[in-house]
Give the backbone structure.
Amino acid sequence: MSFYAMMGLIVVVMVAFTVLWRQGAFLRLSGYWGETMEELKKCTWPTWDELTGSTVVVIVSVALLGGFTVIVDFLLASIIRLIV
């Protein structure tokens, strides 16, 4: 990247930063961040046992769905080979 291109990029970034600053975008962003942190403090987080149980359920469900998909694919491929 040439020197002039780098300087142009810096100027564009500075102008964008100034426009966003004057519009109050950074104040809104910091307000949003603060509100998000307050809401996260209100959340009830799962215990380790609940998290482990949910993870096992998801892994078993994905394995069952994957196995079902493989079996159906194999059966349909076999049927198509018999027909053709």
User: Anything to note?
Assistant: The chain has a mean pLDDT of 91. The chain has two domains: 1-43, 46-84.
